[in-house]
Amino acid sequence: MTDLELILKWLPKMFQGATLTLELLAIAVVAGLCLAVPLGIARASRHWYVRAVPYTYIFFFRGTPLLLQLFIVYYGFAQFESVRKGPLWPYLRDPYWCALLTMTLHTAAYIAEILRGAIHAIPVGEVEAARALGMSRRQALFHIILPRAARIAMPAYSNEVILMLKASAVVYTVTLFDIMGMTRTIIARTYEAMLFFCLAGLFYLVITLLLTRIFRLLERWLKVDSMQGR
After folding, report:
1. pLDDT tens per residue, range 175-208
2. CB contact burial 167-197 (16+ within 10 A = b; e otherwise)
């Protein structure tokens, strides 16, 4: 069987793997963003006792590999009888939910730090002007600080999404058939390692290209929206 015939035969399986990869990535980065917003706001606080908890969380998830975190969630929690008898066990024994939870917690730490940096990058004069106009701290946060921080953080956030795409390749280690998991399964049946590793690389490159274009359009839209707001 020629290389082209092999590719055509297994291409539907590769698309299945790509679908799972994109599903995990999309849910993780959106859920991670929702979790990162309060963490980032707390991390940017002037009070040390407010910063302490998010700092510890971010330090752990940024300081340890995603693979280690995945193993702790998938293999580690199962060691505790209270977890096995708890209401979350149907999810924590499922590799899909373990991978999704780990990816969400991991990317939330990075996004929170990106958001903290974006908040600190906002000129103090803009915040003072909002307060001078009679805005409360809450109003200034939601109408001035967060929208401004979103525009500043967008390039770094897009990079984090792409990095998360590549990092998601570790989920095959807990028996998920993402792009890498499907690739290794196909290689075990065909013994064509170079061919299908190259094909997997092509899938990642195409997805990265699409994400880059999407975020570039989003950045342009935010820039236009900001100029119209002025």
Report:
1. 999 999 999 999 999 999 999 999 999 999 999 9
2. bbbbbbbbebbbbbbbbbbbbeeeebeebbe
Sequence-separated (6 or more) residues with CB below 8 Å from residue 1:
9
Please give the structure tokens belonging to residue 210: 């699409």
Contact 106, 36 (CB under 8 A): no
* Cα–Cα distance for residue pair 58/108, rounded to 1 Å: 8
Across residues 18-35, what is the average pLDDT? 96
Distance between CA 185 and CA 196 in Å, rounded?
10
Burial of 89 (0-12, 13-18, 19+ CB in 10 A): middle
What is the torsional sign of CA 43, 68, 14, 7? positive
CA distances from 53 to 58, 101, 126, 144 (A): 9, 19, 28, 25
Phi and psi dihedrals of 44, rounded to 5? -90, 0
